[in-house]
Design a protein that fits this description.
Elements lengths: L11 H12 L6 H8 L8 H13 L3 E4 L7 E4 L5 E6 L5 E5 L21 E4 L2 H4 L5
Parallel strand pairs: 3-5
Antiparallel strand pairs: 1-2, 3-4
Length: about 130
């Protein structure tokens, strides 16, 4: 039947992938999901991660986070409005709570702001910490 929802089997692999995404406090790349989920399911394959993440996006459970010129990352949908910080050394992306007040006033006169994204970059605490010898 066309348009009917696809019934997805509940497997250990899918449960591990979902658990990784639910416990992450930041958007994850496919590689990060794979690496973390393999702690529970060592033989997990990348194709399964791609299929599962795609299905979770389709279901509305996950949202895709686009960072220009990079592979997308994924985070749980439905969170309050927020922005992201990308570490330029380890390339991890982190969530930042909140937003600039009245960001619309930054647009040139006559422009109508319909949406916005703010990405800060620099070093995360792990990468900014002094390295020991």
């Amino acid at each position: 039947m066309k348009g009917a929802p696809v019934q997805r089997r509940r497997t250990r692999q899918r449960a591990a992938i979902r658990a990784v995404l639910e416990s992450a406090r930041r958007p994850l790349s496919i590689g990060e999901v794979l690496e973390s989920a393999r702690r529970s399911v060592p033989r997990l394959g990348i194709a399964t991660v791609y299929r599962t993440v795609g299905a979770l996006v389709e279901e509305g459970f996950l949202s895709q986070v686009e960072i220009g010129g990079e592979a997308p990352r994924y985070e749980i949908s439905g969170r309050a409005h927020h922005h992201h910080f990308r570490c330029r050394r380890c390339h991890r992306v982190f969530e930042m709570d909140g937003c600039l007040p009245d960001v619309r006033r930054l647009a040139p006169a006559g422009f109508v702001v319909e949406d916005h994204e703010i990405l800060l970059s620099g070093l995360c605490p792990d990468c900014a910490a002094p390295r020991r010898g």
